[in-house]
Design brief:
The protein has 390 residues and is an alpha+beta fold. The protein folds into two domains: 3-135 and 254-373, no CATH class; 145-236, no CATH class. It has eleven helices and six strands. It has a six-stranded antiparallel sheet with strand order 1-2-3-4-5-6. Helix 1 (3-34) crosses helix 4 (57-82) and helix 4 (57-82) packs parallel to helix 8. 27% of the residues are buried.
Length: 390
């Protein structure tokens, strides 16, 4: 690798790292604020809160990294064009493909990082997140439930205790369980204790009654009990048998289980991870095809940049569409690869032929007339304002 290649690769990767950290930080903060109730309602520490929310960062990087690379390549090419370095390189006999080479080196580095994230790092982080969340949930009944407060342990599961007694005794227990859409269960017990064993986590209730209202029945069923074990392991998933979804599975483990009701989810997730590094390559080549050609100051650099951004945005939106369609349609997955192949091929054709993307002459003239009219209007307004003050 020659010194020029090293310079461009170093500049691109530095810009990529800066943009990646900035975008990830902003998005992570917005996601973390949604989980702030982890500390407020469930009594967890700030370290637990930061640890849990940080485990989602590898998943964010999979989406942000190709965009960050596009911005980095655009910044590097703009810097080279602003210093007239692209024109000097072209005059020295450097072909567009030779100038593209260091950007491909940087893109290859980013693609390897994205592949590792999608194949192992992101699923591993999501597995740890799910297990950690299960541990926190399993400890909620014994440590976190605060007397007199209604706490929503999960969606449609609310628990309240009146007070705590000695020896871990819970007094005045109320449970509202609507997790099953076919029925609603309400339980009121005088007292209860938490029991954990190899079979799971249970809330053993004493001296109470249970009311079950099924959607197919008009009247509820009332049961009075001396003791009743409410199975919390189904909620907490802390019995060691945590089921992993598509996001928690490694790339080589994305095979749908037998009799799975939605096998298309695994297919869509598998192809999403395979295409993630290809998107990085496509975005870098697209940006270079619009901004990598030598141009004079009279040629519109901003117009080419806007076109590159719009094309990248369109390709990514089309990719998301094909990803959603691939859940139910097998043809959508190959269509996503075809989209990327056409995008890369068209961009390489622009690069090899040396075409410069410029706005139409009619559009340029119209913009010039509009800017001239604005300047004349501003000058006239300032003149009248100064005359009025005089």
């Amino acid at each position: 690798m020659v010194s020029l290649d090293k310079y461009i690769v170093r500049t691109t990767l530095k810009s990529f790292a800066l943009v990646l950290v900035t975008l990830t930080g902003v998005i992570w903060v917005t996601q973390a604020l949604r989980e702030i109730d982890l500390m407020t309602s469930q009594g967890q520490t700030i370290l637990t809160f930061l640890g849990l929310t940080s485990l989602a960062i590898p998943v964010l990087l999979l989406i942000i990294a190709p965009i960050a690379l596009m911005i980095a390549v655009s910044h590097t090419l703009t810097k080279l064009a602003g210093d007239s370095e692209v024109i000097v390189m072209n005059a020295a006999g450097l072909s567009p493909l030779q100038l593209l080479r260091p950007f491909l080196y940087a893109t290859l580095t980013v693609a390897i990082i994205i592949t590792l994230l999608g194949a192992y790092i992101a699923p591993s982080a999501m597995r740890k997140l799910k297990g950690w969340d299960a541990e926190i949930t399993a400890d909620i009944l014994t440590h976190v439930l605060k007397p007199g407060r209604f706490v929503e342990l999960s969606k449609n599961l609310t628990v309240r205790i009146r007070e705590r007694g000695p020896g871990g005794l819970l007094l005045g227990i109320f449970i509202d369980d609507r997790r099953d859409p076919k029925e609603r269960v309400s339980i009121i017990a005088d007292h209860g204790t938490v029991l954990k064993n190899k079979d799971g986590s249970f809330l053993v209730l004493s001296e109470g009654h249970l009311e079950r209202l099924e959607s197919s029945h008009r009247d509820p069923t009332m049961i009075t009990f001396g003791q009743y074990a409410f199975d919390m392991s189904k909620f907490a998933q802390h019995n060691g048998n945590i089921s992993y979804g598509t996001r928690e599975r490694y790339l080589w483990d994305l095979n749908p289980p037998e009799n799975d009701p939605a096998p298309g989810q695994y297919r869509a997730e598998f192809h999403d991870r395979l295409t993630a590094p290809i998107y990085a390559l496509a975005f870098a080549i697209v940006v270079f095809s619009f901004l990598g050609s030598p141009r004079t100051t009279r040629q519109s650099h901003n117009f080419s940049m806007v076109c590159a951004i719009l094309l990248v945005f369109g390709v990514r939106m089309a990719g998301f569409t094909f990803s959603v369609l691939s859940v139910k349609n097998q043809w959508a997955a190959p269509a996503q690869y075809l989209l990327l192949a056409v995008t890369v091929a068209a961009s390489l054709w622009i690069i090899t032929t040396g075409k410069v993307i410029e706005p139409p002459a009619a559009l340029t003239e119209a913009l010039d007339r509009a800017m001239k009219a604005v300047r004349q209007f501003n000058a006239g307004s300032l003149f009248r304002l100064g005359k009025g003050r005089a």
